[in-house]
Structure formats: structure tokens, C-alpha cells
Amino acid sequence: MDDLGLLKPICLFDKLFNHKLRLNDSVANQFAGFTVSKDVISTAAGSAMVTVGATRVLCGIKVKVMPTLKLESPFICSVEQTNLSQRLLRTNKPVSKDIQSLSVQLDWILRTCAIPDAKDQLQIYFAATDADPSLKKMVCGMYLLHIDLLILHDDGCLLDACLAAVLAALSCAEWSRLEGKAGASVGQVATQTMNTSKMNFQEVATSQSPVRLHATLFHIILDSEGAIVDFAMVGGLSSCLWAHLEEAGICHNRAVLPELLDRAAKQCDVVSVKDFGAFVTIEGSTRQGLVHRSQISNHRIDDASEVLEVGEEVFCKIISDEDGKIGLSMKFVNQTSGDDKDPNNVLAAQQAKRRSGPGREQVPIRLEAELNTLCTRCKGKGRWTFF
């Protein structure tokens, strides 16, 4: 009769499905409340606070100038959680894999779906001169947008709230426009103009009375003055967000990944640095992977930001690919020449064995020597020979 306890959650869900209710007695097809407040942080280039139901997220954007064009993504997304927003409160709790995955998904959505031409919009050009007016068409650097999100309260729909906060903050973000000087690095010498730069979003044709059509993702609907008039978490008008996502690009990534796994070492670019490790983009693919701080060096590293920085080129080796998450290592590759120190993955296997801990592997007991023993006196075999 102990199995009757398993029927309690099933009966509860069956009751909710029949009455079309949720756990908080709200209607199953009722959308959560949605509010947006822009320019809530005076020191940020753009900021917004979004509330979806009881979930509340704060987003701030800062702009950094990079003299390189080799960055795979012009965004650096960082998501943090306050102790009050976590369902389980523990001291010295590391960053969860869900929060790490949320940062990667936000970066992927921004550069592939929401603003596919962001890299072109954030380029810095040389200042034109009378002697050479064609300099205005030459690129000398790029704006790098640091997007920091703070989860104030978590009641579900985190991706919905975070993406809405990022888009709202980007829509109001402004920064001084720079122009590079010929013969000098834009990171050292740059001319600040009187104009400002901002992100341009592609206009979406909507009717006067938007109707939710089908269950898709979410989308913010703006009026002609840029004010938010609607936010669809489930259904309606969001299919245009994915219009720029080409199936050919997905097939290319699927075909490139097995090829990357077969190679010994690969050159990578650091796109984001956290205390637990660094996210890098692999050359020849748009995929990103994580280099954990334990895989950076043979010496102990407590904070990855002390040894790595955004935009740095490193040599990495793919050591794992589980559930679409790529794990890489730097300590098995010579960072000067890019040569593989462990071509047969012997060191990686030994390290994985040490992580499993002593005593994890059960050594089988072998009795062949005892059973095959022959007594010289009684000619008996086996254990009886010892008595």
C-alpha cells in the first residue's frame, strides 16, 4: 500500500488539468503580468527592469571599445542571482549550470535571431580626411556591449524575463560615437564626436489589433513612438524573431562539430570570463564551449579572470561534448605553438580517473591461485590444501 503515495501528485495534476487551473489557482491559459521600466540605472548606457508575473530581472549595459574585429559576438552576457531569489539558500554556492546555460542562450539569441546585424552596427570607422576621404569606409575597431543581468526574484520564466530586459535595455542604450585616427589604434587614440550611437531594431509590421496566433516564443510589440504596448510570452507575432535563423547555418554547425572533435587542438577566442571559467568560440564554428578553471593550468586557479581576458586568443582541446555542451582544456595544449601535449588522451583519462576518487572501482577477487594449488602430501586441490 506504500505505492498509494505516488498517486498524490498524479491526482493533483489530473485535477488541475480537468479544471484548467495552475497551482496558484490561476487559469491555465492566462498570461502573466508584464511590466517594463527603462533607464533605471543612471550610470549605465542602457538599463531596464522587467517583471513577468512574480519574476523580476534588472539589466544594465556598458560599452567597451575593442581594437579587434575577430570577436565572434559583440555581446558579453553575464547573469547573476541574488541570495533571496534562489529557492535553496546555501553558503558559498557556486554558479549553477542553469545560470551558465542562460548566459550562453541569451548571447546566441541576440546575435543570431534578435539582432543578426549587431556586429555590423557596432563597428568603428576611421575619420575621413581631405587627403583620403575613403578612410570613412575602413573599420578600425568595434564596440563591445557588456550586458549584466541580476535576477531579483525567480518565480519561473527566467529566459522570458531576461530576454525582455535585454531588449528593453538595448532599445534605450546610447553611447558616444568614436572615430579612429589613421595610423593609431582606436583603443589608444580616438576622436569623440558630438553624435551618439544606438542599436537599430528591424521594424515588424503589426496590425492595429494584434492577435495571438499560435504557440511560439515571445516578442515585444512597440508602437510608432517606441513604447511597449504588448509582450507575448506564448503565441503571436514572434515568428518574425526567428526569420534570420538559417537552417543552412544549423546544418553547417552539425557537420563541423564532428570534424572539430577529431582534431587535436584548435585556436579559440575568449568571449566571456567568469570566476568559474571562460567561454570561448572555436575557430571554424559558431559553437561556444566552456574552459573550466581547473582546465586552464596545472596550477590551482581560483578566479579565471586573473589569467584570461575577453578577446584573448588561446589554444584549446575539446575533451567532452555532453548534451550539446562542449568542454575544453588549455593545459593539455602548448599555448605558444599550439602543439598537443596529450595526443592519445592518456593524461585526460588519468585525470578523469583521479576525479572519480579512490575506492570507486571495485577490484575483483581472483581465486585462481588458491583453487589451482596442489598439495604435495595429500595431492588435494583448493583451499583444503592449507589445513
From TrEMBL:
One record GO biological process: RNA stabilization
InterPro entries hit by this protein: ExoRNase_PH_dom1, NA-bd_OB-fold, PNPase/RNase_PH_dom_sf, Ribosomal_Su5_D2-typ_SF, S1_domain
Domain S1 motif span(s) in chain numbering = 258-331
Q: Which SUPFAM superfamilies match?
A: Nucleic acid-binding proteins (SSF50249), Ribosomal protein S5 domain 2-like (SSF54211)
UniProt GO MF annotations: RNA binding
User: What's the protein here called?
Assistant: S1 motif domain-containing protein
